[in-house]
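User: Assemble these into one structure.

Assistant: Restating your components, then the assembled model:
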Amino acid sequence: MASIEMKNIVKKYGDGFPAVNDVSLDIADGEFMILVGPSGCGKSTLLRMIVGLEDITSGDMVIGGTRVNDKAPRDRNLSMVFQNYALYPHMSVYENIAFPLRLSKTPDDQVDRLVKEAADVLELHEHLDRKPANLSGGQRQRVAMGRAIVRQAEAFLFDEPLSNLDAKLRGQMRTEIARLQRRLGITTVYVTHDQTEAMTLGDRVCVLRKGSIQQVASPRELYEQPVNLFVAGFIGSPPMNFLPATVQGSTLQTPFGPIELDERRAAAVAGRDLLLVGIRPEYFEDASLVDEAKKHVGTTFTAKVDVTEWLGDQQYAYIPYEAPDQIRTRLRDLSKELDSEELRTQAIVSIDSTSRIREGREAEFWLDTRKVHVFDPETGENLTRDAEAGAELTRMAVEDREEQVAEASGGLTGDRSSGAA
Amino acid sequence: MRFLFRPPADEATALLTLPWEQPLEEWDPDLLLHVPQRGISRHVVRFVAAEGSVFALKEIAEPLARKEYALLGEFAEEGLPAVSVLGICVDRPGGQEALLVTRYLEYSMSYRHLFSSPRSQHSTSQLLDTMVVLLVRLHLAGVFWGDCSLSNTLFRPDADGLTAYLVDAETVERRPVLSAGMRRHDVDLARERVGAELLDLQFGELLSPDVDPITVADALPGRYEALWDAVTREEVFRRDEQRYRVAERLAWINELGFDAGEVELVHTPEGARLRVQTRVAEPGQHRRELFRLTGLEVQENQARRLLNDLRSYRAWLEQEGGRPVPETVAGHRWMAEVYLPVVQAVPRHLAGRLAPAQLFHEVLEHRWFLSEQAGRDVGTTAALESYLSSELPRLPADMTTPAVLAGGADGAPDR
């Protein structure tokens, strides 16, 4: 296993357009790193430069302390998982996992040890003598993972592995991959365009836009302390709402009434003209359901509800709002960039599923103002980001991971000599 | 539901009555054609016959189906050796996956057949070379296969050799030029898959005992690199050598089964630098010539063989008649008096084991063999009789091409 360091990586194609522009990223040994972003952000190109499929225009790609820019894919000893998940019908599950070792003429006792270790991790032990035809969909995928494991690669790489699976198998596989990575503690780079996958799988997530890194942080930091409008709009489903706002002293004037800012945030936006205030759907609530004791940390406003969506365990209300042309244009551009249909000038607010708020009527809402962020509409910068609080969230995630990796390596070196004898 | 296909696709209309709304696995077996196991597929694949033609249907996620449909269409236009796509069916009810429909490659053989029959006339080495030619051709065209395997390749006899065809383009990526890394990765994947597929045959006791899976797989990268280098390398030589060196290089490229598209010769202080742009399409000079003279569509090596026979027939006609015979007249007469009598002489129970042009080639080979034994030319009629009674019946019945099994094209046209 190894760390992966990228230093000022640039990828330019024939036309001179930088598909990846000056990316520097350190992936720690054992870390699960997600590369995420809308199509064209450069995430796949970056992964392919790690694997060796794309030439690197400039910069250094360092794997396990060795610069690999000029190494052939095979010599980098990385494993693209699921790239070959053909199962061979005449071979047992054991041989289906073992064949990469057979092809490299690995001695039998070593093959046996590696296959059995992999089968333990994947809980395929009872199935080793069976033929693959008798396996379930999930078990088949695990055999493919077994092949990757026995190769003893420096890292696992996944390129949108779940994009062509049906919803059920996708969910199942997401869990499998997460569990496996934690148990093996192997460095993993995973490319996806799906922010839900990114948030649920990664220790850290690297958000890319037009070939440049926007932010690298734990899922929680990205969610709570995004650096800019792009990250804020990309992470979270339903997405963050952006309302136009003007500032007067420590108060933001918004279509949903005034929002009072604390001292730190007020100072950060002082003297600004037109702003965008970002509010996550779950910061809202049906005012009639909010505990009186809590009301003072937010504000209450009345608005007309366009549509409600009741989903059983949760409920959403859609509230249109007015915005100046400048803001409309900005939000439309952002939507387009995020491949999103949403982010129009209507707020999506999450309300308790027991709420009786009705469509087409005025209703009273409460808004928790403690965590709202304020963005510069021109540069997209998050003016109120608390970098320290964000770093603390990522620090906690890193600690969790280190603990898990330590446990995993303790567990895996356990001797299987009884099986190999 | 929506059907997408590119005209001309008259056959497509005959397929419209099939139960596209049902999962492929649940289709009435009476609608399907049983085709012996062709290889390993991740997807549900079935075969149907309509109006004498056979089609393969594959159930696959819609974005992949659309991509594969577009790519196979491009490949056909560019003359790359790949199966021909008819169309796709998307928006099937209940959120089902799309169906991709390709034309069955008649008279093709799967690796299972080729590697498991001990008395196969094709050596393992020849098979491997055929596959490497396909991979180099694809790479020259900027195609990263991503899944080059024996299961995804079909082989068709072409006179003394074989031609390989790409069957599955699901994982293909197309670039203006492939990086060395992409090519190498493709070759590594091919090596691993070929090795695994042969090991699988070995475990199933289907592999000829003289084939070692690991040796075969390990030979693939070296052969690939050698061929890639031969068709792409730049050469520098002295100016006074340039005439014969260029000719030599072009002849060598032709020998390898490729055509030169453009030749660039740059004079530099070190000498003449030669860069040859190798054409990706299958060579077609003989094919086109034979088609012009006879209307027959066959493969390149078969065409070369048939043209040789046609030309010697023309010479004989001229000698007999004592006057020149125009080539088009010779073409018609050769068809009627030589070619058709041979290919139409195949008894019904042996039909479809070889493509007509291949059968004709085999009969000519057989004639040469008999003549050598006899010390005189035995003639085509005697060779044909002997071939039909002693040689053709030895080819396994499971080689019969599906279109003939389906009862459609009797002595199906070469296509």
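The interface with chain B takes residues 14, 48, 51-55, 72-74, 83-92, 95, 99-100, 102-103, 105, 164 of chain A (CB under 8 Å).
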